[in-house]
Amino acid sequence: MTEQRLADNQFPRLMNKRVLCDYLGVSAPIVDNLIKFDGLNAAAFTPSRNGGKTNTLFIKERVLEWELKVGL
Questions:
Q1: DSSP classification of residue 13
Q2: What are the DSSP calls for 22-52, one per residue?
Q3: Which domain of life is it from (predicted)?
Q4: Entry pTM
Q5: 58 Cβ contact partners less than 8 Å away, ≥ 6 residues apart
Q6: Helix (H, G, I), strand (E, B) or coil at 69
Q7: What are phi and psi of 15, to 5 degrees?
């Protein structure tokens, strides 16, 4: 979304929301809106065995597919 984004190989395959913000080059509130209104939630999952935490992760390949789909 921004011209200053690092190369894809600089980001892990699984990203938490903070890393996703860096990956997309946007703030957390914008990511929240993209999840709620633009279908970015399709790239997310919550591991079932993560010590009771609700840490949602985003799969980089699915984020890339989402970017292509929405035209970013």
A1: S
A2: HHHT--HHHHHHHHHHSSGGGGEE--S-STT
A3: Bacteria
A4: 0.83
A5: 14, 15, 16, 17, 20, 40, 43, 44
A6: helix
A7: -125, 140
Asked whether 43 and 59 are in contact (CB, 8 A), the reply is: yes
- The residue with tokens 């913000």 is 21
- For the range 67-70, what are the long-range contacts, defined as Cβ-Cβ under 8 Å and sequence gap of 24 or more? 69/39, 70/38, 70/39
- Both tokens of 18, joined, read 């903070």
Q: How far apart, in whole angstroms, are the C-alpha atoms of residue 13 and residue 61?
A: 7
